[in-house]
Amino acid sequence: MSIVKIRKIAYKDNETIAQLIREVLIEMGVPKVGTAYEDASLDKMYESYDQSGSSYFVVEEEGVVIGGAGIAPLENGAPEVCELQKMYFLSKARGKGLGFKMIQTCLDFAKKEGYAQCYLETMPYMEAARKLYHKVGFASLDKPIGDTGHYSCQAWMIKEL
After folding, report:
1. How many Å is the Cα radius of gyration of the chain?
2. Which residues contact 124 (CB under 8 A, 6 or more apart)?
3. Reading across the β-sheet that carries 4-8, which strands appear in turn?
């Protein structure tokens, strides 16, 4: 049985996690424009999440990063609302319950930071992800909140913390 652990991102993970996220976005057929693919923060994830109210976590298997997810304040949103961001896993990491564990890690962090709600954006056709989000208590919204710049993401969800 392989050893899997969730930990905070380190500076050394920047290149790996950027490459992983872009690889998964391409695999999923996500547009490169209006999504996380073109975020400037993607190449400096450690620095982007190394601030108050933010944290990014990676999942490692046998010392190799196989996924990640983060929490940050919702851009141009209410101060009590955070966003679950950049949750992506390599195909070999899916279907093992890691997404559920990662969401719990992120939501625990959000609660400790004092957030009242957690928002996320995804693609309507990412059915497995949306099913997982519903399972952990996220509810669908009719329109986006805040202003993430991810106008190509057409599914929005929120959860009370």
Report:
1. 14
2. 130, 154, 155
3. 4-8, 55-61, 64-73, 81-89, 117-122, 155-160, 139-141
Phi and psi at residue 124, to the nearest 5°? -55, -35
Q: Enter the pTM of the model.
A: 0.94
Share in percent of the chain as helix, strand, coil (round to 5) = 35, 30, 35
If phi > 0 it is left, if psi is from -120 to 50 it is alpha, else beta; for residue 137 that is left
Answer yes or no: are the C-beta atoms of 86 and 51 closer than 8 Å: no
Q: Give residue-wise pLDDT tens across range 108-159.
A: 999 999 999 999 999 888 888 999 999 999 999 999 999 887 767 789 999 9
Q: Which amino acid is at 156?
A: W
* HEC per residue, 1-64: CCCEEEEECCHHHHHHHHHHHHHHHHHCCCCCCCCHHHCHHHHHHHHHHCCCCCEEEEEEECCE
